[in-house]
Known about the structure:
Chain A is an alpha+beta fold. Chain A has helices spanning 49-57, 99-108, 114-127, 143-155, 173-190, 201-207, 225-230, 235-240, and strands spanning 8-17, 26-34, 38-42, 64-69, 72-73, 84-87, 161-165, 193-198, 210-215, 218-223, 245-255, 258-263, 268-273, 282-287, 304-315, 319-326, 329-337, 350-355, 360-364.
Amino acid sequence: MSDTTEGAFVEFSRVQKSYDGETLVVKDLNLTMPKGEFLTMLGPSGSGKTTCLMMLAGFETATHGEILLDGKPINNIPPHKRGIGMVFQNYALFPHMTVAENLSFPLEVRKIGKSDREAKVKRALDMVQMGAFGGRRPAQLSGGQQQRIALARALVFEPELVLMDEPLGALDKQLREHMQFEITNLAHSLGITTVYVTHDQTEALTMSDRVAVFDDGRIQQLAPPDQLYEAPQNSFVAQFIGENNTLTGTVTEVNGEFCKVKLDDGEVIDAKAVNIDGVGSKTQVSIRPERVEYNSERMAEGVHTIKAEVLEFIYMGDIFRTRLRVAGKDDFVIKTRNAPDQVRLKRGQQIEIGWLPSDCHALDA
Amino acid sequence: MTDRTTGPDQMTGATPDNGMRNANRANGKPGPMLSADGTPLKRSLRRAQRRQKIRALMLIAPLLIFVLLTFIAPIADMLFRSVQNQIVSDTLPRTVASLERWDGQSGEVPDEQTFRALYLDMFIAAERKEHTRLGSRLNYELTGVSSLFRRTGRDVDDFGEVYEDAFNDLDPKWEDPTTWARILGSADWVGEAEGAEAPGPDFELRDDVASYLPLTAELYGIFAEFIQTEDGDSPMEEEPWTLVYTALYWDLQRQGFAYSGPEADLVRAAAQAASGFENVSLKALFIDSDKDWGDPEVWATIKTYAPEYTPGYFLNAVDRQLTPDGVEKRPANEQIYGILFQRTIFMSLTITISCILLGYPVAYILANLPMRTANLLMILVLLPFWTSLLVRTSAWKVMLQQQGVINDTLVWLGLVDDASRLVMINNQFGTIVAMTHILLPFMILPLYSVMATIPPSYVRASKSLGATNWTTFWRVYFPQSVPGIGAGSILVFILSIGYYITPEIVGGTTGTFISNRIAYHISSSLNWGLAAALGSILLAVVLILYYLYDRIVGIDNVKLGG
């Protein structure tokens, strides 16, 4: 990657970060974001995603490399001069100020006149449908209301970049889903660039334009949600995003886009060669549970079939979830839609299952 | 997310609760909620909780009793002393009664009758050695009363000698203690007491003797009881006090005196002769003993402080005094408590502010360091607690005195001339420095515990919103640390307003607190009433300040910890 990329609004260039001088929390991070993008940093805890956000906000300094905002390096700019809006995990609303005072605070420190300030605060509160709550204290608001106020406060001074650090972590499921929708709507309608950090993959998939999957201080894959789910680049991403079945084996033959994999029990299957080291290398084959079919009438042309034994059948309402023994492994899961003509499997039943080679990804071991 | 189907009110069908509700509805009145056995739910709940309450009470009972006995009760007793004044009417009961007739404004000394009462009271008090205590008590109000009482207490023994001699000259039988015992003691008692080992059986007055010789009987009774219990002597062997002779003389002088009983001849003869005895004026004797008895002011003081309860100590504590003409200011050279109270409050405030200024940055650093380092530094803050208070205060003496470490260093550096070394001890400066040092941990600890609970995300949020470091501190961090300042200030201020040891050691004359004066009155001047009044005022001042603090800052805003 070149040092500066044309049209990039936010750019991380070869950024490294170490807290103790012995281990790197962030290893060689390169990332560019165009203006107006909603990018999510997703990863397990300790993967370095929050550190990246804090470096961007200015609360941590990069040990090595450069961070550019709108083409200008910001490594030496203190946080309060970066003009980046930020929403914190626990909202960080100032408890000794009312909601309106909280919102007015960033405007006051920018020396904006009183009438202007009041108009902006009102607009921001209306934007999150909290217009009637200006006189309340944060402690008098519910979690969801506090969340909205935190959002309004991060937006009230009209920043071009907004950072969000797991902002929905403290909300219950229903509210969280609702707020996901609101946040993305707001971000898109205002055209602001958003960096969103979460460890919740559903949140990442539903909200983002692009998702950067972090692990071990590196971006494992940076792609739009659908690509991330359907074409994982490596086994970490495949495992981390959604549910996934893994079969281990050895590559025996590579034909361009596809390859043949000999599974541990001797069965040979076709798979898409995504991330393998060539013939003879170990590989993990990844198949999504909903891409596996057991009803022979529904099987598409060209599927690869394999024998399986039903170990467990769970009725979940909208879907059936069946655990099978496949190629000597006991944790192979398939999901089927609860359609009127769907067959309900029984424990101990011997069946044949099938999938398309294109849904089957041979990844690194 | 709430599931609307499973609230208790949505439960239908035969649950115990619904059964109860349906029963109530059927009756047509809502009524109280009932428990399963039909008793009102509130009563069942109370019964269920009673056992827990008793248990809790039993657990705190030992401490409660301990505190009551060793803390609350003595303090209450001490505070009560600030108005208590029984000593005057207990020691001089007859004088106080007699003085009621006397007009304090007249400018004249009371009449002979009052001096007689004083003679009786004073004689008994002198025998019981109570007159000096009363003298010291009244000396608080009028200087010189103490020595007056001491001198007269010595002389009062001789006032009645003239009557003793007169009776003895009349008939030597009056010299015999048994004569007196037979006249005044009951027949039974005389029978038992004769030949009995001293002190013998408890003295009993003859039934009708009080009607013939009322004063003699009363005083002989006091005399007999006193020598039996105090000296372990028998009235059969001891000549009565001269006071009793005087009383007999007065009794015999009464109009229409008649007597029948033992030694009737002797008594009648004495009654005949008594009119020829020299009638001494007690007024003259008292004034002869000490001319101050001729001063109406002494009598006015006794009369003013005769009631059992007095505001005198409190007035004294606010530099006022109770005079026959009402409440007056004390002379300017005796007004010390107002200044002392002002100084105490001023210095406590100075110490509190110094503690805030010095403690706040330390607490801030501690709260923002990693846990391990913070704990280590916290030990340094707490280190003074492990050293004796006396040692720390004395160390300041070494540091601050004119030949001390700081002065020596300044002289060595040439900043201060050897001849004009700084005076930093035995004045207010020394007290403020030493007490700030000693009380600093009480400021740092609550500040730290409050600051440790301020999430760093507030500071970050503020900076991300565009506030500079100073604005962030002043508008976001500081307001949230105010409860810590409040708690620390209350602690430091209340501790310092009653501080004693440090000002005593390093305070000199200008750096002492009101508590030093209280201690002086408790242990040196023994004016416990004044000490109690000063203590009560101090307690009231603290409570008022606490109340004002609650009104202005709000006590809910005080946090000692998370």
